[in-house]
Design brief:
Blueprint: E1 7-13, H1 20-28, E2 34-41, H2 47-52, E3 58-63, H3 69-79, E4 84-87, E5 93-94, H4 98-108, E6 114-123, E7 128-130, E8 148-151, H5 152-158, H6 169-179, E9 185-196, H7 205-226
Parallel strand pairs: 1-2, 1-4, 2-3, 6-9
Antiparallel strand pairs: 4-8, 5-9, 6-7, 6-8
Helix pairs in contact: 6-7
Length: 228
């Protein structure tokens, strides 16, 4: 256990009282201790009170107003103590034993900087299926940030999430990682359960397309700048 790197998990939350308890328990149940940080992004539904009920096992950061998902993630990064960083949406869950399994992979391969596992999609009506895991990079369906564990050194190199991209910050970060030739080690174990329901942020297709278009423009601008 002493050779397993210390993992920090960051859960951004906005009006997530209905689901976040399961997310927190899935992290606290990991066999090796995880530095768990919950960033309440200005919730008005009592999310912070529920999180505070978990006591000292959870580091709770309360933002006075809703500042957006990238800002919440960045606040978590600033407080994370681990050498490995993981993420989890407040309505999703980590797979049992994930921390031990992937922590041991990092321990055995000290040059590896990022891991990417598979995602199980669970619909609240009870239907389940394994997520798509593409060998291409960038994949046709880019993986959920919650399905990755990333060394802190990658963020030291690439910087934090872009706060102007409130719903495409993950695409932008992965695009920057690709441009910097950050290698992701892909494996076939399911590490994340993505719970689909009517309140998912990704249900607003038009908004997501607008932010995705902005992220693509940023990537093109970086490439043009690098060409000169």
């Amino acid at each position: 256990m002493t050779n397993v790197p210390f993992i920090s998990a960051i859960i951004p939350a906005y009006n997530a009282r209905r689901f976040i308890g399961d997310a927190i328990r899935s992290v606290l149940a990991q066999p090796y201790g995880v530095d768990l940080i919950v960033v309440d992004d200005g919730s008005t539904d009592g999310t912070s009170d529920l999180v505070a009920g978990f006591g000292k096992d959870v580091h709770l950061i309360r933002l006075e107003q809703n500042e957006g998902l990238p800002t919440a993630l960045n606040r978590g990064l600033e407080q994370a103590r681990g050498s490995i960083i993981g993420f989890l949406d407040a309505d999703d869950t980590w797979a049992p034993g994930r921390g031990r399994m992937e922590g041991q992979l990092f321990s055995r391969m000290p040059d590896m900087v990022a891991l990417w596992g598979r995602t199980r999609i669970v619909f609240l009506d009870g239907e389940t299926r394994d997520g798509i895991s593409s060998p291409a990079w960038p994949p046709a369906f880019y993986p959920a940030l919650g399905s990755m564990l990333i060394r802190r050194t990658v963020f030291d190199r690439l910087g934090q999430f872009d706060p102007s991209l409130r719903h495409a910050q993950d695409f932008d970060f992965l695009a920057r990682a690709k441009e910097a030739h950050v290698p992701f080690h892909r494996h076939e174990d399911i590490v994340l359960t993505w719970r689909r329901h009517a309140m998912n942020m990704t249900n607003n297709v038009k908004r997501d397309r607008d932010y995705l278009a902005s992220a693509i423009r940023h990537a093109l601008q970086r490439r043009r700048a690098a060409a000169f």
